[in-house]
Design goal:
The complex is a heterodimer of chains A (188) and B (686).
Chain A lengths: L1 H5 L5 H36 L4 H21 L4 H37 L3 H18 L1 H4 L3 H37 L9
Helix pairs in contact in A: 2-3
Chain B lengths: L8 E2 L6 E2 L27 H17 L7 H4 L6 H12 L4 H12 L6 H17 L1 H26 L2 H7 L5 H8 L4 H7 L17 H13 L2 H9 L14 H12 L32 H8 L2 H16 L2 H9 L1 H15 L5 H8 L12 H20 L15 H16 L16 H21 L12 H11 L6 E7 L5 H18 L2 E6 L4 H12 L7 E3 L4 H9 L1 H7 L13 E6 L2 H11 L7 E6 L4 H10 L4 E4 L14 H35 L1
Parallel strand pairs in B: 3-4, 3-6, 4-5, 6-7, 7-8
Antiparallel strand pairs in B: 1-2
Helix pairs in contact in B: 1-12, 5-15, 6-18, 8-11, 9-12, 9-16, 15-18, 16-18, 20-28, 22-23, 24-25, 24-26, 26-27
Classes of the chains: A mainly alpha (188), B mainly alpha (686).
């Protein structure tokens, strides 16, 4: 695929076929994963394993969604409303818990890690950007302060660039390791 | 009925049989302690010795065989009393066990046993260490007295030669003996065995006639007259030692053991030296100073005498002192008089010579100097002896306890007493569970949420400053014409739908108002029902087509590379080609997905412009792409949501959340600082 990408449009036909294979394999893999999940929980229910009630809920939900999707179709507004009414509050509540955990972690980080360069820099930067996020300083409309705010808000871009460069180099190294057989599978 | 009469003891008073363990006769009530005397062991009490000695002394006086020299009379290792006991016992038929005990006692040098010997030695060593300071002061005081006496004797010694020439064939030592008058207090002193230390070369062997004369005069003359006569006879010279013959020793032994009325006032100190018997003034009892030591050192001859005496006393430091300590009732009165004895050093040889034969028969004796050293020991040992039996000689040595053993026993007793009692014990340190902190956090969040909900949603102020990417995106949307096609890619989860819909809905509404042709595509299965909500918020018709593309952006890559193949290969998706679109608006909560579009698809289609609506968390990652021009603009977070009317977004709740987060962070810092301060304070207090 890498070679085909360098020889476009001559190798684009082959690249398209390979991409379709990838999509098919990914779809089949998703079906296999769903089947494995359902069979595993059915086995838990059959054995009466601890927590099998949750398995029962999962299987019932899966069968109900599958039945409604087959009966009404995936584009039906009733079906979409039904699924959305379940998924949206659940995921929103989950994100709220993440916020709560982060808040607790912000409070505990100094107790657990003590005073170090990492914790102090984290605390100071968090306080600065939380204050900027409130928007009080921006509403003051002070030109010099706005310049400072603009400079401070540009600082994350520096970190993001470093992050992206690091991600690119890491991906390249990982690709070479895989190509030369230096990297085993995830099961090793 | 089965009693063995061979083991019964006969009462010395009534002659009747008593059990072996009886201490008193059951018939007459007399004391049977003497029967329990172990062969080879010395008598333990003075009373018994005093009771039996008069008879023995009388026999010695009347027995001419005892007038023989001392070498023939007795050996130094065996006391007369022991000889008598041995002869009596040998004459009887002894039991086997007693024979074995005797044999073993003869074979083994120390019949007491290693354990008991070690115990006694350890106690003696401890008591020596404890009384070292007192001994030092006492020795210093004694040295001062000796120094004075030596000086006086030196002065008198210069005058004596002429006096000796005046006397008719009467040796000087005889004059001194005549001047002596035995006293009961000094009898006990005669028990002390000292190693004689002579500083001169005077003759110490005398003829039998002279000794007979000495004995006769010492015992038969009237003490008062003799004392008065001898007071004027002269003063003994320094270092003039009196030899003692066996007869005298026998006489002195009788003097020791028979405190008869004749020798009652006898003492061996001339009357002109009685001033030394006076109490020592307080200044002399003060500790011995270095200057005084130096003054002693200035007189080497005298110092040698004293040193010799001290060394002699140190030759047998341990064993005799230990024996003394074991017999407290015997030596304490002697030691009280030891000060006066030390004031007359020339008498020590007489005492030592006299007391030699009485070593075993009489109670254990100590050299004169050792007696001095033993005084503080015994005085110090008195409180300890209160805890022990009054007569330790009655207790077998192997039953004596070391101090360490006593301490352990007391500790064990205290532990046993405390057993079963309810004690406070060491409470485990309870680590703070943090429930209060969690409760505070929960209350803060609840209060903020409730307040923000009660007050109601507050729209973002329109005059609030916007970020540069948001302004660029706003400018880009304004430039779109009515015929331009815009592809809206929905790639987000339900959790972030509120934030993204609040940003994207006003933008879609504006584009729809501008007449821009909008096409909706999603790569997430959940995008279908999420798009329904977005379309509703944006005021778009509900029948707007939202296409689902399986395989995520891999399929889009295929489109980008060869649109012709993609167009003929899949009929399920109406959207076949990306080239007609002027702008691709990526509504995503994943920066990775946006990067995939920018890095994998954008290179194939140079005419496409990409913009993004994302969460504030992902915005920093997109900033480099905006800076490089790959993104024409993006809107991220609530702060960029003032593009249009926001009906589903509460800016006040957002601010309350940020404020709570800020407060919690500061609380964490403050609590940590307080904890450090408390710890430091505790360390200081410790």
């Amino acid at each position: 695929m890498l070679a085909a990408m360098f020889f476009v449009p001559q190798g684009s036909g082959i690249l398209g076929v390979v991409l379709n294979w990838v999509i098919i394999v990914a779809g089949v893999a998703l079906l296999v994963a769903i089947a494995s999940l359902v069979l595993t929980h059915l086995r838990f229910i059959a054995k009466g394993k601890k927590g099998f009630l949750l398995s029962l809920v999962l299987v019932i939900s899966f069968l109900a969604t599958l039945a409604l999707g087959l009966l009404l179709g995936v584009d039906h507004s009733t079906f979409l409303g039904f699924v959305g009414a379940i998924i949206r509050p659940i995921e929103t509540a989950l994100l709220g818990l993440v916020a709560l955990i982060m808040m607790s972690a912000a409070m505990k980080i100094f107790r657990e890690r003590g005073w170090s360069a990492l914790t102090v820099s984290f605390g100071v930067s968090a306080i600065i950007f939380l204050i900027l996020g409130l928007g009080f300083l921006q509403n003051l409309n002070i030109p010099a302060l706005n310049e400072v705010i603009r400079f401070v808000e540009a600082l994350p871009m520096i970190g993001a660039r470093g992050l992206l460069i690091g991600i690119g180099i890491g991906l390249l190294m990982m690709a070479f390791r895989v190509l030369f057989g230096m990297e085993g599978s995830g099961n090793d | 009925m089965t009693e063995d009469h061979s083991e019964l003891n006969l009462c010395p008073n009534c002659g009747k049989e008593n059990l072996p363990m009886a201490t008193r006769c059951v018939h007459c009530g007399s004391d049977l302690e003497a029967l329990f005397t172990i062969f080879g062991q010395s008598q333990s009490s003075d009373e018994e010795a005093e009771e039996s000695l008069p008879d023995i002394i009388e026999e010695i006086r009347n027995d001419p065989s005892l007038q023989t020299p001392v070498e023939e009379q007795s050996s130094p290792e065996l006391a007369p009393a022991d000889q008598i006991d041995e002869s009596i016992l040998n004459s009887e038929q002894l039991p086997d066990w007693l024979t074995k005990v005797r044999e073993r006692a003869q074979e083994e040098g120390d019949a007491i046993g290693d354990l008991a010997s070690g115990t006694i030695a350890m106690d003696a060593a401890r008591s020596e260490e404890a009384s070292a300071g007192v001994e030092g002061e006492f020795n210093a005081w004694i040295n001062r007295i000796r120094e004075k006496s030596q000086q006086e004797n030196n002065v008198r010694a210069r005058q004596l030669p002429s006096e000796n020439e005046d006397t008719d064939q009467v040796p000087e030592w005889l004059q001194r003996i005549r001047a002596l008058r035995p006293r009961p207090e000094e009898e006990i002193t005669h028990e002390v065995k000292t190693v004689p230390t002579y500083a001169d070369d005077l003759p110490r062997e005398w003829t039998d006639e002279a000794l007979d004369e000495l004995r006769r005069q010492a015992l038969e003359e009237d003490q008062e007259q003799e004392t008065e006569a001898l007071l004027s006879a002269g003063v003994p010279t320094e270092g003039e030692e009196l030899p003692v013959e066996p007869e005298i020793e026998g006489a002195s032994e009788s003097v020791q053991e028979e405190p008869g009325p004749i020798e009652e006032d006898f003492h061996n100190i001339p009357d002109d030296e009685e001033s030394y018997l006076e109490p020592v003034p307080g200044e002399d009892q003060e500790p011995f100073t270095e200057a005084e030591e130096g003054s002693i050192a200035e007189n080497p001859g005298e110092a040698e005498l004293e040193t010799g005496a001290i060394e002699a006393s140190e030759e047998e430091p341990g064993s005799r002192v230990e024996e003394d300590l074991e017999q407290p009732g015997q030596d304490v009165p002697e030691l009280e008089d030891s000060q006066s004895e030390e004031a007359v050093p020339e008498e020590a040889p007489v005492e030592s010579e006299v007391s030699e034969p009485a070593e075993k028969g009489a109670p254990e004796s100590v050299p004169a100097e050792l007696e001095d050293e033993a005084v503080p020991k015994e005085l110090e040992a008195e409180p300890e002896e209160e805890e022990q039996p009054p007569d330790s000689a009655a207790v077998p040595p192997d039953l004596l306890l070391l101090r360490d053993q006593q301490d352990r026993a007391s500790l064990l007793a205290s532990l046993i007493e405390q057993e079963g009692r309810v004690t406070a014990g060491k409470q485990a340190f309870r680590k703070p569970s943090g429930r209060a902190g969690r409760l505070a956090v929960a209350l803060l969040l609840l209060i903020g949420l409730i307040v923000s909900l009660l007050i109601g949603p507050s729209p973002m102020p329109t005059d609030a400053p916007k970020s540069m990417p948001a302004l660029a995106l706003s400018d880009q949307t304004r430039t779109l014409a009515e015929s331009d096609q815009v592809l809206v890619v929905l790639d987000y989860q339900a959790a972030t739908s509120r934030e993204l819909e609040a940003l994207a809905a006003p933008m879609l509404e504006q584009l729809h108002a501008q007449g821009v042709q909008l096409s909706f595509l999603t790569t997430q299965p959940s995008g279908l029902f999420l798009a329904q909500s977005l379309l509703k918020q944006a005021g778009l018709p509900e029948d707007t087509l939202v296409e689902f593309l399986p395989g995520s952006y891999l399929s889009l890559i295929n489109w980008a590379m060869d649109p012709a193949i993609s167009a003929t290969g899949d009929d399920l998706v109406r959207l076949k080609n990306l080239h007609p679109f002027r702008l691709v608006l990526l509504v995503s909560d994943s920066s990775d997905h946006i990067r995939g579009w920018l890095e994998q698809i954008a290179p194939w289609i140079e005419s496409l412009n990409f913009a993004a609506v994302t969460t504030q968390m992902e915005a920093p990652v997109l900033s480099p792409y905006f800076d490089s021009g790959q993104l024409v603009g993006y809107a991220a977070g609530i702060a960029d949501g003032n593009i249009g009317a926001q009906s589903t977004f509460s800016y006040r709740a957002y601010r309350v959340g940020l404020l709570l987060m800020l407060v919690m962070l500061l609380l964490g810092m403050i609590s940590k600082g307080e904890e450090d301060a408390i710890r430091k304070e505790e360390e200081r207090s410790e």
